[in-house]
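Subject: Sanity check before I submit

Could someone independently write out the structure tokens for this chain? I want to compare against mine line by line before I put it in a report. The sequence has 427 residues.
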Amino acid sequence: MKERVVGRAAVLRGTIDVPSDKSIGHRALLANAIATGSAEVRLRAPGADLASTIGCLTALGIEINRSGATVAIRGGRFASPKRALDCGNSGTTMRLLAGVMAGQGAAGVLDGDASLRTRPMDRVAQPLRAMGARVATTNGHAPIEIGGGPLRAASVDLPVASAQLLGAIAFAALGAEGETTVRLPAAARDHSERLLAWMGVPIHREGLVTSIAGPARPAARSVDVPGDPSAAAAWLVAGALHPDADLLLPYVCLNPTRLAVVDALREMGAAIEVTAVGSDGPEPTGEIRVRSGDRLGPIRIGGADVAALIDELPLLGVAMASADGVSELRDAGELRVKESDRIAAMVTGLEAIGARVEELPDGWRVGPGAPREAEIATRGDHRIAIAFAVAALAGVSGGVRIDDAEAVSVSYPGFWADLESVAAVPA
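---
Independent answer below. Compare away.
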């Protein structure tokens, strides 16, 4: 592990091209891998998670050629992998690929690193079994063994509002006869529906219900994957908290299911402008600008809002620690089964930087304190590393020493370079 020390920046100024959106990138790679024809997926600064999906598809015999930011894919049928498919740290790779393999009648084993092996996988295995797939987990976790065989359409009620689970079932439904329906308990990202419909698949979401008519096969389509709103959120929080900031983020995905972090920061008083530019792909795109404003006010997040903010909650925890009052996060127990126990990691880190914080079973309660220097244990989690780098950069902390700076490579390999490009000499 490589440490990194971050201090407060005197000013924050500049334009940042954030990495291509992971959620869309995974789906674009997988859909084109099973499509009829060839396509190119353009990925700016793809992290380790997207590399895991590319590696798994290559191991399944899909023809893939990478040249810079362009990934050329020729769709085809999966071959039997010679060894377990390595999903690395990517839960999205594992869950979506389980659905894709089930839908294609492919057999193989999905595995990952020590962190991924702790994450719950029965939640994807059970609905796939209901569709007729042969899926075996290891005590509810990875490794997961997928067996080939015909699928049948099913009606599935998801236990959590998860776009990963919905996407896995949608991909599986492409190989099933009849109409499969998926009911969400609350709103979740609709990237799977947008992409597959754009590629000619009969899929539709009405409210909390998604319907897919199978069997169906996507038509290959090239896509320039827009910037990741979850990566952009780091700079939105930094700019909103810093007293002298003006940051522009061009070509970002403006899917309404991904902009809850903008709404939350605006509710706290942040000065954020969103300008739609348009897109020739399946997602709306545009630019986001954040500038310094008044001190943020407190916020309470809970209920159905949590699912839409799940990846940005660590960053919002940092914003809460700088707000003028006590903020609270509830109903976010899902954070305990991410790459780390993010509730415990955030509470420990917020205490270390001087915030007044209370750990709750499903969240935290936090208010401002006296910023101080701290050492942050990331627990190998990219979201924790980025959140506390932002805390130091914006002055919520007196400075931090991050124990594993390389953790950011999972989602944002260029994070440190972007930080240096917009941060003036520390004050």
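---
OP: Matches mine. For the report I'm noting this point. The first strand starts at residue 4 and ends at 6.
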